[in-house]
Amino acid sequence: MISQTRRLRRTPFSDGVEAQGVSAYTVYNRMLLPTVFESVEADYHHLKKHVQVWDVACERQVELRGPDASRLMQMLTPRDLRGMGVGQCYYVPIVDETGGMLNDPVAVKLSEDRWWISIADSDLLLWVKGVANGYRLDVLVDEPDVSPLGIQGPKSDELMARVFGDAVRDIRFFRYGVFDFEGRDMVIARSGYSKQGGFEIYVEGGDIGMPLWDALFKAGEDLQVRAGCPNGIERIEGGLLSYGNDMTDDNTPHECGLGKFCNTHTAIGCIGRDALLRVAKEGPVQQIRPIAIAGDPVPGCDRVWPLYAGDKRVGQVTSAAWSPDFNTNVAIGMVRMTHWDAGTELRVDIKGEERAAVVQEKFWL
Amino acid sequence: MISQTRRLRRTPFSDGVEAQGVSAYTVYNRMLLPTVFESVEADYHHLKKHVQVWDVACERQVELRGPDASRLMQMLTPRDLRGMGVGQCYYVPIVDETGGMLNDPVAVKLSEDRWWISIADSDLLLWVKGVANGYRLDVLVDEPDVSPLGIQGPKSDELMARVFGDAVRDIRFFRYGVFDFEGRDMVIARSGYSKQGGFEIYVEGGDIGMPLWDALFKAGEDLQVRAGCPNGIERIEGGLLSYGNDMTDDNTPHECGLGKFCNTHTAIGCIGRDALLRVAKEGPVQQIRPIAIAGDPVPGCDRVWPLYAGDKRVGQVTSAAWSPDFNTNVAIGMVRMTHWDAGTELRVDIKGEERAAVVQEKFWL
Q1: Which residues 154-173 on chain B approach chain A with CB closer than 8 angstroms?
Q2: Can you give the CATH number for the domain in which B183 is found?
Q3: CA B7, CA A33: separation in Å to the nearest integer?
Q4: Tell me, what's the pLDDT at B326?
Q5: Residue B263 falls within a domain, yes or no?
Q6: Which member of A7, A130, A319 has the closest CB to residue B131?
Q7: Cβ proximity of B159 and B151 under 8 Å
Q8: Are residue B201 and residue B215 in the same domain, yes or no?
């Protein structure tokens, strides 16, 4: 059971989530994030077939505004942002001075001097504020009243077109447009934490949250729209990483397989650049891999499960679930380079029970 | 229900907590914090009469180490630290450049160049790292493997003496000593998040957590020692504030009644000093107050409850519980200066239900 207090913040959509019968939560950025409605498996099948509305308000925004906003944004990430235009969203690893991951958010460029960073589960606001203060940058940094609402699933385009007009269909992947809802501007991006397609609506002003929620459900009745949430099976099948689960500040972006988002040579000004130059050159000694675990459905992965080759510990599993569609336990783990080749047979220790595990070539998706 | 994943970190004591029958959790610093064992009320009576062992590992430490450690520590807080010696613990409001509270931790001075900051619920580590980096300070900042274990209740001295020897009885309030357990040094402070007296053991190294836990329970059998946790009734009676519940980064220390911990004129170097000088001079326009709420036991305070005088909103309640010992609903709220005098009669809106509420002279304790 979870004890609900003000500290675990409700969202503009919490009343809607409760009315739709949420049955479990997690806490993410000190905010409630639904994890189950009907059941993880029923939610999973529905997500892959229909369309869901997700309360992901817990993806809080860090807003940078002012003449130094773009300079500060580049200080935070090894991804080269020079080619990024207004209207684009970039997945950006955020690193500290040692190259350790502090967050893996999506940056939204609103104008040359205004950005939103849509964060994973850590108080990135405090890092950004500390850096801005220490370097005496001319920029305002705060958390605005903006709450993302996810629309995910194969019928997302149809549902969104009914509420915002057909122009939403033209939004390209990781681009956004600005659309009207009841006289209010909303940033709508084609993005989201599933592989089923969809959008994220950056809802500015908590008061408009429930009117939008209700409009979406009304418009989508015949589409079988339901409340949903990031799905613990689907996101592992698709290899979507979870900060705090699959990586922490112990890990570099390269260990997380995010080297393709690092332009270490050209990302001039990035605080962690020096530390990452060597990693970029020599490569990491451990890396995230998809892993199949044999046997019956595994329990919830509430702690690290060590991976062994013989008596030697060679890694760990950090997320796992039974996949109905692929008929195996799908998992995400960090594996030493000596044992990370596809097909490598390992053993995983699940709270004292040993299971066979095999490194996969790629995620299932 | 709460979905348990690695991201919501277990503690070195989680196995013990589960064996003792924890029945509810909250999440604090992305770590599990027990909130109920038998029931909030049964736990409350036991805490006031016997002794409890609390898994408060979620009070993570931010360690500062290096030549600039003391300088950095003073940059973080408006409390003047010049008179603080090794062996002392200080409750220190931490503020940003606007004077907004980022955390309300306890600072532990281990030596002139080494500090622990025992934090409330926000990633203070990221603020401190950002500041240290921006100001190019010569200091290491990280989160060590240190997990506080609370011993609280009137029989705390007796239990602790049995495990650590009679010298623990001599530790003064907000002082610490270093004691041996199975060949390991442990910092033990007379402090804790209750008004019933007790200690906090800073357990260094997760591996020694359960041996210590077991030793405490074995030594305290006849003292009726039990697993416990910060108690939602007792802490409100005693006026112990909760960061995220009773105050946020919107509030200054003065609004939180923590002006006595601010030496704004002499805390040279504090980042928020300029912003707080005016507040210190003119006083805040709203402040935290004890508030009694009439009627039957109130529900859990999972969101802000507005306070009204006539039609005018004059504040909000942020924590509340039924107190068996004082036979009223005890509450903590933030009240505008026009209505904060003791005895002022207000109305509180509890999710649509109005109740009479009266500002109190002091907390119940």
Answers
A1: none
A2: 3.30.1360.120
A3: 13
A4: 98
A5: no
A6: A130
A7: yes
A8: yes
A96 shares a domain with A210? no
Return the CATH number at A335: 2.40.30.110
Q: How confident is the model at residue B123 (pLDDT cuts 50, 70, 90)?
A: very high
B254-291: burial string, b at 16+ Cβ within 10 Å, e else: bbbbbbebbbbeebeebbbbebbeebbeeebebbbbbb
Question: Best interface-test mutation with A: which of B2, B4, B6 has the largest number of A CBs within 10 A?
Answer: B6
Q: Report whether pLDDT(B136) > 90.
A: yes
- Measure CB to CB from residue A10 to each of B123, B243, B303 and give the nearest one: B303
Q: For residue A122, give the nearest of B126, B128, B135 by CB distance.
A: B126
Contacts of B269 in chain A (CB under 8 A): none
pLDDT digits (tens, 9 = 90+) for A146-183: 999 999 999 999 999 999 999 999 999 999 999 999 99
Minimal Cα distance from A242: which residue of B?
B7
Q: Which two tokens stand for residue A340?
A: 């990370």
Does the residue B88 lie in any domain?
A: yes
CATH number of the structural domain spanning residue B137: 3.30.70.1400
The verdict on B132 touching A (C-beta cutoff 8 Å) is yes
ipTM, interface predicted TM-score of the complex: 0.97
What is the DSSP secondary structure assignment for residue B298, as one 8-state letter? Answer: P
Q: Which of B97, B129, B245 sits opposite A133 (nearest CB)?
A: B97
Give how many domains chain B has, as a whole number: 3
Angle between helices A124-134 and A69-76 (to 10 degrees): 120
Per-residue pLDDT tens over the stretch A44-100 = 999 999 999 999 999 999 999 999 999 999 999 999 999 999 999 999 999 999 999
Could you give the C-alpha distances from A18 to A13, A15, A52, A229, in angstroms and in order?
9, 5, 15, 13
A119 and A159 assigned to the same domain: no
Evaluate whether residue A310 is within a structural domain: yes
| Same domain, yes or no: A54 and A150 | yes
Query: Domain boundary residue among B82, B111, B142?
Result: B142
CB contact under 8 A, B7 and A244: yes
CA atoms within 13 A on the CB side of A55: 31
Q: Is the pLDDT of residue B365 over 90?
A: no
Q: Do A6 and B121 touch (CB under 8 A)?
A: no
The verdict on B162 and B197 lying in the same domain is yes
Question: How does DSSP assign A155-195, residue by residue?
Answer: THHHHHHHHH-GGGGGPPBTBEEEEEETTEEEEEEB--SSS
* Residue A183 shares a structural domain with residue A224: yes
| Interchain proximity B24–A3, CB inside 8 Å | yes
Q: Distance (Å, rounded) from C-alpha B4 to C-alpha A159?
A: 32
Asked if A26 lies within 8 A of B10 by C-beta distance, the reply is no
Give the structural domain span for A355: 285-365
Would A321 be classed as within a structural domain?
A: yes
- Give one DSSP letter per residue of B57-95, joined into a string: TTSPEEEEESTTHHHHHHHH-SS--TTPPTTBEEE--EE
Distance CA A98, CA A10 (A): 35
Residues A40 and A69 in one domain: no
Question: What percent of chain A stands above pLDDT 90?
Answer: 98
What's the whole-number mean pLDDT along residues A292-299? 98
CA distance A115 to chain B (A): 19
Contact A38, A212 (CB under 8 A): no
For the stretch B222-271, pLDDT in tens is 999 999 999 999 999 999 999 999 999 999 999 999 999 999 999 999 99
| Contact between residue A287 and residue A334 where contact means Cβ atoms under 8 Å apart | yes
Same domain, B133 and B173: no
Could you tell me if A23 lies within 8 Å of chain B, comparing CB atoms?
yes
Q: Which of B91, B122, B142 is the last residue of a domain?
A: B142
